[in-house]
From TrEMBL:
Signal peptide: none
Encoding gene, per UniProt annotation: folD
Function: Catalyzes the oxidation of 5,10-methylenetetrahydrofolate to 5,10-methenyltetrahydrofolate and then the hydrolysis of 5,10-methenyltetrahydrofolate to 10-formyltetrahydrofolate.
Residues the entry annotates as binding NADP(+): G166, R167, S168, I241
One Pfam family per UniProt: THF_DHG_CYH
Subunit: Homodimer.
Protein name per Swiss-Prot or TrEMBL: Bifunctional protein FolD
């Protein structure tokens, strides 16, 4: 039987509608709508699409959004100056610096310059530390989206064997933390799962993946996960966004749909959830510093 499709697009719409309702309530109370400032440096076509989609989602949910599109030859000092201005602007609740940045700019320096209270990506070391210790201020958008996607699809994570393929700072590492942590009042979305993190250098990768009840692919290699790697009846989440001959494809081979019980599609799976969680974080940021 083909796998059930985990409908990220539909779930993201539900979350965005919840956010829109909350934003409308805040505005009716005389507050400013939450505002997101997106910073884009250069002309990376994929980044331009991501930022456009993020801003469109903001507008649909009633959030303010501003785009600061800087030329590719912007200096690190110029970018730092913009970040400092946005840090001070009371109408800006969230700051998103779209990655990757041009090579002559040190990403780490820029990400550390964003005030942690507006760091809706949760990339600042202070927010990473809070997440690590189980007191997240903001949950990073893609891992948060994966957890919400599972929860809202009634897929239990507690006690499950979860294998995460990929160890990036944006997805693999924070997702492993969030998935393994014990839920608490400070950390209600934690997964309570037993987590293995694997990557391209992992020995016996196929056997490890076969043990997963929930397999999450964030390795950045087109169609890396094949049907032979998946336990029949497993849930498979595809975080991959790859371009092959101009066509978008994930990290999971479509043949996995014949083995898995449930599978998130690319496009239309984790991508829209990531954007919904960015809005959620921006709303949260607005409640941290009321305007
Ligand atoms: N580039 C790829 N993914 C992301 C993300 O989640 N946030 C930002 N700011 N840049 C990215």
């Amino acid at each position: 039987m083909p796998a059930r499709k985990i409908e990220g697009i539909r779930l993201a719409k539900v979350i965005k509608a919840e956010i829109a309702l909350e934003v409308a309530r805040r505005v009716a109370d005389g507050k400013h709508p939450p505002g997101l400032a997106a910073v884009l440096v250069g002309e990376n076509p994929a980044s331009q699409v991501y930022v456009r989609n993020k801003r469109k989602a903001c507008e649909e949910a009633g959030l303010n959004s501003w785009l600061h599109h800087l030329p590719a030859d912007t200096t690190q000092e110029e970018l730092l100056k913009l970040v400092h201005t946005l840090n001070q602007d009371p109408k800006v609740n969230g700051i998103l610096v779209q990655l990757p940045l041009p090579k002559h700019i040190d990403e780490e320096t820029i990400l550390r310059a964003v005030t942690p209270l507006k760091d809706v990506d949760s990339f600042h070391p202070e927010n990473v530390g809070l997440l690590m210790t189980g007191h997240p201020r903001f949950m990073p958008c893609t891992p948060f989206g994966v957890l919400q996607m599972l929860k809202r699809s009634d897929i239990e994570t507690a006690g499950k064997r979860v294998v995460i393929l990929g160890r990036s700072n944006i997805v693999g590492k924070p997702l492993a933390l969030m998935m393994m942590q014990k839920p608490s009042d400070a950390n209600p979305h934690a997964g309570d799962a037993t987590v293995t993190v694997a990557h391209r250098g992992t020995k016996h990768l196929k056997e490890i993946c076969q043990q997963a009840e929930i397999l999450i692919a964030a390795i950045g290699v087109p169609n890396f996960v094949t049907a032979q790697m998946v336990q029949p009846g497993a849930v498979v989440i595809d975080v991959g966004i790859n371009s092959v001959n101009g066509k978008l494809c994930g990290d999971v081979d479509p043949e996995v749909g014949e083995v898995a019980a449930a599978l998130s599609p690319v496009p239309g799976g984790v991508g829209p959830m990531t954007i919904a969680m960015l809005l959620q974080n921006t709303l949260k940021a607005a409640t941290i510093h009321q305007t």
